[in-house]
Design a protein that fits this description.
Length: 225
């Protein structure tokens, strides 16, 4: 039986609770052209958690290892390990993925994919599988169903657009800055502030914005006070 954590993990668990409180949203900064969808890249996932891990004394390592022998050729394994520097307590995970191509580029692609998903799972970063294919095709709706669904979707989009415009319109108009919508990893919309923000720090804080030291920007979830 594989062991994925040290005998004691109380100090590690306490540190990870603090990490999860400090996690920044992982922005969907990459696009999969095959399914026309956006997802959070490895760089985005790392940026969302790197500072919180370091500040709480947790060492992150991700090591490529051989896949189980019985799977045969064409697979790569990855161990992700979180170690509490002070106590030495640790927790790990092991993931295996097929190689899209049996060459260095294929290996690099598979490892990047594994690193992103293993880290997301271990830290509890909410992630949608936007860059994956559906498990199966849904039954094709009738013409009437498609028309009804289309109208419903359009109505919802109109409501969302109107709501977003109303929210941006309610934010303070400040010289030298503008507000932009950015999708977060959990599917919610974020508002970020772009421009000369330093003179307006107190106003931004009073309007619910938080400073992301890693991304060097002010942000908050949309439709929140």
């Amino acid at each position: 039986m594989e062991i994925y954590h040290s005998t004691e993990i109380s100090k590690l668990a306490k540190a990870l609770i603090t990490v999860q409180k400090e996690l920044s949203p992982a922005m969907k900064d990459a696009k999969n052209p095959f399914v026309n969808s956006h997802y959070a890249s490895l760089n985005s996932v790392m940026q969302s958690c790197r500072d919180a891990l370091i500040q709480n004394g947790i060492w992150l390592t991700q090591l490529p290892v051989p896949a189980p022998f019985e799977l045969g050729a064409g697979y790569i394994g990855l161990i992700t390990k979180l170690t509490h520097a002070e106590s030495g307590q640790w927790q790990s995970s092991f993931i295996v993925a097929p190689l899209p191509k049996n060459d260095p580029q294929g290996m690099g692609s598979a490892l990047t994919y594994c690193r992103r998903y293993a880290l997301t799972a271990m830290l509890g970063i909410v992630a949608e599988d936007d860059d994956g294919e559906g498990a199966k095709q849904s039954p094709r709706p009738s013409t009437k169903q498609r028309k009804t669904t289309s109208n419903t979707v359009q109505n919802k989009e109109d409501i969302i657009i109107k709501s977003e415009k109303d929210e941006l319109g309610n934010l303070p108009r400040l010289k030298g800055i503008e507000y932009q919508y950015v999708p977060a990893q959990d599917g919610r919309q974020c508002i970020i502030v772009v421009g000369e923000t330093i003179p307006h720090k107190e106003i931004l804080v009073s309007n619910g914005f938080k400073w992301n030291n890693q991304r060097k920007c002010w942000w908050k979830y949309a439709q929140t006070a």
